[in-house]
Amino acid sequence: MYSIPFARCLGISMIPLVVLSTIASLLLLFPSMQHRYLAEGHITPEARYCTGIWLSGFVVLVAARGFASRYMKEGHCLFRADMMCRLAYTCVAVFATGFCFLFNTSGLTKGPLCLYNGTNGQEWGRPLQRENTEEISYLYVPERWASACIEPHGIVMWNMVLFSMIMTTSGLQAFICTVQILHAIVAVIMGPGFRKNQVVPA
């Protein structure tokens, strides 16, 4: 059986996650709330590509609109075809959220792009990025966060919070989509079943 109210509830629950992901992705473009770093190209590729907007944002919103539609086709074959379409929408959303999660994980682990004291004086780069796999990630060494970058001010925490927010929303979206996939698969297997206490004609 397939519950339209349940599917709509899952779709609606995506909306605040989309909003949070979009806001976090936009803020990553403006470190310290200043536009000059974006204009000068001093932001990371992970922030510049805005995956929180077009993957965990737009793509997920379109997919959620598809699988949360209130319209249900009647008839055995049409019902299963409709379920397969909803299943396809959800799989697209899972792929989008998964890619967004992995891409922003890379942004978090590599650290921010900032002005720091290098071997040749002050330069722009990613001083917290690991040079080899044996090196301990800066995420586990809080003592480095405050002193690693000269500017933008507070960029380490800025990146950590916003990338973590996008990763969290993407993870929750993936979970919701997984629930919807299981919901749709059960509907495909069982058929129309009962809806509104009436037998849906085959």
Describe this structure in words.
Helices cover 60% and strands 7% of the residues. The chain is built from six helices and four strands; from the N terminus they run H-H-H-H-H-E-E-H-E-E. Strands 1-2 form a two-stranded antiparallel ribbon.
* Percent range of helical residues: 55-70%
Distance between the termini: 13 Å
Rg of Cα set? 22 Å
Largest sheet: 2 strands, antiparallel
- Regions with pLDDT < 50 over 5+ consecutive residues? 194-202
- The average pLDDT score comes to 88
H/E element sequence = HHHHHEEHEE
The spatial strand order of the largest sheet comes to: 1-2
Helix/strand-derived category reads mainly alpha
Shape: elongated
| Number of H/I helices | 6
Strand portion, in percent? 5-15%
Number of strands: 4
Give structural attributes:
single chain; about 200 residues; mainly alpha; two-stranded antiparallel sheet; 6 helices; elongated
Topology:
Blueprint: H1 4-28, H2 36-39, H3 45-48, H4 51-67, H5 76-110, E1 114-118, E2 121-125, H6 155-190, E3 194-195, E4 198-199
Antiparallel strand pairs: 1-2, 3-4
Summarize the structure.
By secondary structure, this protein is mainly α. 60% of the residues lie in helices and 7% in strands. It is built from six helices and four strands; from the N terminus they run αααααββαββ.
